[in-house]
UniProtKB/TrEMBL annotation:
Pfam families: G3P_antiterm (PF04309). One of its GO terms (biological process) is regulation of DNA-templated transcription. This is Glycerol uptake operon antiterminator regulatory protein. One of its GO terms (molecular function) is RNA binding. SUPFAM superfamilies: GlpP-like. It comes from Paludifilum halophilum. Keywords: Glycerol metabolism, RNA-binding, Transcription, Transcription regulation. InterPro entries: Aldolase_TIM, GlpP.
Length: 191
């Protein structure tokens, strides 16, 4: 699995929130990025720019403007936008993405212990290739519980503001982190 091997080599994923982030991405080490902005008319060019840098682009479908909430959206994204994969909180979109041959990352929000069990169910239902857990500062037992039902890579994202937060996410069991703070993009190892 290319994603798993890639995050083993460089476990930090750049979460791009703006055109400025995209402009400077070339100067940083992450081989993977999550596009958390953009719209239907510009995303193809944005993905191409990321790929021209030798990096992988994963489109957050929920945050991209101009898309629907159906299978046709994923067919269009695969054919026209051509990202390396997609990220979504919507289980049915993750399932559709997988059925269309796209690498799919299920984003889960974990505000309480009940949502951990719900997350296990959603991962099974969507058949996601990887999962992003938000916030990334959840305790170790959350990662352990999610791994009980699946061995897919787990990315910690959200509320990781400093190097100590990143270190804690890795200690707690994250395989990778997604961070928007550029100062964290060049962290190379899990500690």
């Amino acid at each position: 699995m290319e994603f798993k091997r890639g995050i083993e080599r460089h476990p930090v994923i750049a979460a791009l929130r703006s055109e400025e982030d995209l402009e400077v991405l070339r100067d940083y080490k992450p081989g993977f990025c999550f596009l958390l902005f953009g719209e239907i008319n510009t995303l193809r060019q944005m993905v191409k720019r990321v790929k021209d840098m030798g990096k992988k682009a994963y489109l957050h479908v929920d945050l991209a403007q101009g898309f629907g909430n159906d299978r046709a959206t994923l067919q269009y994204i695969k054919r026209e936008i051509q990202p390396d994969g997609v990220v979504s909180t919507r289980t049915h979109l993750i399932r559709f993405a997988r059925e269309e041959g796209l690498f799919a990352i299920q984003r889960l929000f974990i505000p309480d212990s009940m949502s951990v069990k719900t997350g296990q169910h959603l991962i099974k239902q969507s058949r996601a290739d990887a999962v992003e857990v938000m916030p990334g500062v959840v305790p170790a037992w959350v990662f352990q519980t999610l791994r009980e039902k699946s061995d897919i890579p787990i990315v910690a994202g959200g509320l990781l503001r400093g190097e100590d937060d990143v270190k804690a996410a890795f200690r707690n069991g994250a395989d990778a982190v997604s961070v928007s703070k550029r100062e964290l993009w060049n962290i190379e190892e899990k500690y």
